[in-house]
């Protein structure tokens, strides 16, 4: 019995020791660092670089377009569904090359697949009819595609800019279709007017391609909208002053532009450019006049300068008189006290009345001056009570005629301060009407209405 118990105890001890040893081994195994001996790791899918295969993409698009045929609705549906399978974002330039030109384009505009008709499609803009309605239908395909895949908007803008740089590589009819497409898409807002900057590139300007293309584009644009839509977009894009750049340097003048665009049936744009150029000229003229007034240049010199500028820039007198009034009134720092500003104004305006008189020889010029005076007196509250005195001063100094004052009073006044200024002028107008009937000379106004004006005249 004793021997049996001893054996059991020995066995238990061996088992315990074996268990402890196994625990030690397991612990050591857990802390042992793995050894890389020829192990292969699978690359994560996101780390794999996808091959750039525009030709595979091209083949898929060309096949889909050819299967859809001339049915533009079917083409639009194909492009819509294909976007979920194909990487439009990556191959946007290839996509738009095919939709416009029917194949991939090399730098410069030549067709990469020109000799392989199986890699081209005729169901594209360049193979469409040269007709506004036909091109508008294609424009709808682009509209639908870009509305569906908004991220293509910038890529499409870049594509059109690129195609405009490639114009020289396209045939005349292809240029026309691209111009029509661009004009229609500009009209509906799919494209911004900034794409037109590509037309100012030397190589297409020198060849006369830029101007010809612009005419076709603007015609298509105006067929969809109107001239105001075009001019407004040009102003927003700061292109209104760059239109002359459509022509070579030796022809960059308003007369040539006006003749070219008027003969092309775009007189509205000719007139628009003249106005824009005139505005620029007026700003320069105003700046120069302001400088001369600050230096107190003799009036004769200023008259000569203004007349030369009018002749050189074809500025009409009505445009100049308002500018002169602004310059004259800006040349003084006016008193803040209402009771003193009238006297200061009359003294200042008496000095420059001869200058204003030279450029108010037309009825329209006189009315514009009266309206400018009215607006100024309304906008500058200290001058509210000085309006009548200024008008009478100008009447006495032969700046304003009786006819102009009466016309302004009856129908040509502006809304600003109308009731106040008409009330101020009532007695003077009545006197003018009575004097006209009685043949009374203008000088009698001082006697009839008091001598408040005499010190300033």
TrEMBL record:
<feature type="domain" description="W2">
    <location>
        <begin position="275"/>
        <end position="442"/>
    </location>
</feature>
<dbReference type="InterPro" id="IPR016024">
    <property type="entry name" value="ARM-type_fold"/>
</dbReference>
<dbReference type="Pfam" id="PF02020">
    <property type="entry name" value="W2"/>
</dbReference>
<keyword id="KW-0810">Translation regulation</keyword>
<dbReference type="GO" id="GO:0016020">
    <property type="term" value="C:membrane"/>
</dbReference>
<comment type="similarity">
    <text>Belongs to the BZW family.</text>
</comment>
<dbReference type="InterPro" id="IPR057397">
    <property type="entry name" value="HEAT_5MP1_2"/>
</dbReference>
<protein>
    <recommendedName>
        <fullName>eIF5-mimic protein 1</fullName>
    </recommendedName>
</protein>
<dbReference type="Pfam" id="PF25504">
    <property type="entry name" value="HEAT_5MP1_2"/>
</dbReference>
<dbReference type="InterPro" id="IPR003307">
    <property type="entry name" value="W2_domain"/>
</dbReference>
<dbReference type="GO" id="GO:0005737">
    <property type="term" value="C:cytoplasm"/>
</dbReference>
<dbReference type="InterPro" id="IPR043510">
    <property type="entry name" value="W2_5MP1/2"/>
</dbReference>
<dbReference type="GO" id="GO:0006446">
    <property type="term" value="P:regulation of translational initiation"/>
</dbReference>
<keyword id="KW-0963">Cytoplasm</keyword>
<dbReference type="InterPro" id="IPR051245">
    <property type="entry name" value="eIF5-mimic_regulator"/>
</dbReference>
């Amino acid at each position: 019995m004793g021997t049996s118990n001893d054996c059991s105890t020995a066995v238990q001890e061996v088992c315990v020791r074996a268990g402890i040893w196994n625990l030690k081994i397991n612990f050591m195994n857990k802390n042992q660092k793995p050894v890389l001996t020829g192990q292969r790791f699978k690359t994560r899918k996101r780390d794999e670089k996808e091959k750039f295969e525009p030709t595979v993409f091209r083949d898929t698009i060309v096949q889909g377009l050819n299967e859809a045929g001339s049915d533009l609705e079917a083409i639009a549906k194909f492009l819509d569904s294909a976007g979920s399978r194909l990487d439009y974002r990556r191959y946007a330039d290839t996509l738009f090359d095919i939709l416009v030109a029917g194949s991939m384009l090399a730098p410069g505009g030549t067709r990469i697949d020109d000799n392989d008709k199986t890699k081209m499609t005729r169901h594209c803009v360049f193979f469409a009819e040269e007709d506004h309605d036909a091109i508008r239908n294609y424009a709808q395909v682009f509209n639908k595609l870009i509305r569906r895949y908004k991220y293509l908007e910038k890529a499409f803008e870049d594509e059109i800019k690129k195609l405009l740089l490639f114009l020289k590589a396209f045939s005349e009819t292809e240029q026309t279709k691209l111009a029509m497409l661009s004009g229609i898409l500009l009209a509906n807002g799919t494209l911004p007017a900034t794409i037109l900057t590509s037309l100012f590139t030397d190589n297409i300007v020198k060849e006369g391609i830029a101007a010809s293309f612009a005419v076709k584009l603007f015609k298509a644009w105006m067929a969809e909208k109107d001239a105001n839509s075009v001019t407004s977009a040009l102003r927003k894009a700061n292109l209104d002053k760059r239109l002359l750049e459509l022509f070579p340097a030796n022809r960059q003048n308003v007369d040539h532009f006006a003749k070219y665009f008027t003969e092309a049936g775009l007189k509205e744009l000719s007139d628009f450019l003249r106005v824009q150029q005139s505005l620029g000229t007026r700003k320069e003229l105003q700046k120069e006049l302001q400088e001369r007034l600050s230096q107190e240049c003799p009036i004769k010199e200023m008259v000569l300068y203004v007349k030369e500028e009018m002749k050189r820039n074809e500025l009409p007198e009505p445009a100049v008189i308002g500018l002169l009034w602004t310059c004259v009134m800006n040349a003084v720092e006016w008193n803040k006290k209402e009771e003193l500003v009238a006297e200061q104004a009359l003294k200042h305006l008496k000095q420059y009345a001869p200058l204003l008189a030279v450029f108010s020889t037309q009825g329209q010029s006189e009315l514009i001056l009266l309206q400018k005076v009215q607006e100024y007196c309304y906008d500058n509250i200290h001058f509210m009570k000085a309006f009548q005195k200024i008008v009478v001063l100008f009447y006495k100094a032969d700046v304003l005629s009786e006819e102009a004052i009466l016309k302004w009073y009856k129908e040509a006044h502006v809304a600003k301060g109308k009731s106040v200024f008409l009330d101020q002028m009532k007695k003077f107008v009545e006197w003018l009407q009575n004097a006209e009937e009685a043949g009374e000379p203008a000088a009698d106004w001082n006697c009839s209405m008091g001598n408040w004006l005499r010190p300033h005249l």
